[in-house]
Amino acid sequence: MGYVAVKKTMSAIPQDIIDQENAKLMAAHQADYDALGVRLARVGIDIEHIVDRLMTLEVGIPSWGMVSGGTRFARFPMPGEPTHILEKIEDCAAVHQVSGLTPRISLHFPWDKANDIDEVRDYAHAHGMGFDAVNSNTFQDQPGQRLSYKYGSLTHSDPATRAQAIEHNLECIEIGDRLCAKGLTVWIGDGSNFAGQNEFADTLDRYLESMKAIYAALPHDWRLFIEHKLYEPAFYATVIQDWGTSILCAQQLGPKAQCLVDLGHHAPSVNIELIVARLAQFGKLGGFHFNDSKYGDDDLDAGSLNPFQLFLIFNELVYAETRARGQFNPAYMMDQSHNVTDPIESLLNSARAIAGAYVKALIVDRKALREYQSSNDVMMAHHCLRMAYETDVRPALAMARLRKGGAIDPMMTFRASGYRAQKARVRKSRPAIGGGII
């Protein structure tokens, strides 16, 4: 999704450090890989085919996820975190270099606005990175902004405020086009906190009117991702609150409009894998923001709390890919807030979880699963999924990383590189602020 093959001329982490760390683990890794290959071969699975499939998986990385996150109470910056977009690119490149999974950066405007867009693009390309969908921001007021979004943006009752929000999205498309991105993600916080504050139908009408203006400005090869969220900052009613409203709007707008699923934007206990299946079945599953949650939009590391759910989601994605026969191309991205961990380490943690869930979904015995489903053998159908989920696929993940020039053990290699300490010596410190996500 937006990745342009580029010739890498700069490295965030010296390659010889990665090679040295790999050399220490190579013998054990090869033995583990061979053992996994034998185990998979017993059930008719070629490990080389699985690794080849894994090497095609690409997940976007959020620029805003490269700094310490926070809550509405506080944010605690760490030494060496980036202070501007070029430094964010360096950190994104470090994640991709050791993980081999994250070749695209998703920028968020105006957070990532730069005076020289060409410099940003060229600096990313020099690090071997491309760009994912760009993100607009009409959920905050910016310094010098003429009209406030306190009471809404694309759905505001004032036409001038809506026009301002539309114009910002058009600017994001223009910037993204120069970066060679191929999509725009629109998430709005518009809604109401009190009954009677807005008419539900009127706000959705205004949303569609605004989005049609944005949709009309898309380049021919772009997609428009509609991101829904149950609540927050609106606590009574959110305009785009669930996948049902999202798909209705996407259908109204046209074929380039699709739904984006953030794993933390649902009510507790919602069956997200079912939502995935429904959106994919009707051709409107545009992409994912991977994270994990316990209570709400927690933005924790993907797979850190509910790894089985992540596997079940990828099980539906792999099946949807099979049904679509080449016409299925969701844009995957991580969207996380790292409040108490090093952002790079958390993203490496998530990359491993995502890749692992994907591989486990690939090794599900689908022929047997279909037969058990047809014969209503409930326990054996579930057993098919459990056997795949409980398989230790780490050697396959390590081999895919190794073949891409990455690390057998990304976390330990990153720490051995001394990257964070080196950046702490040369980068300015970010000030601690009272609260906020970034």
From TrEMBL:
Protein name: L-rhamnose catabolism isomerase
Lineage: Bacteria, Pseudomonadati, Pseudomonadota, Alphaproteobacteria, Caulobacterales
Keywords: Isomerase, Manganese, Metal-binding
MF GO annotations: isomerase activity
Keyword rRNA-binding: no
Recorded superkingdom: Bacteria
Source species of the chain: Asticcacaulis currens
Name of the gene this protein is made from: rhaI
All residue ranges annotated as the Xylose isomerase-like TIM barrel domain in the record: 107-299
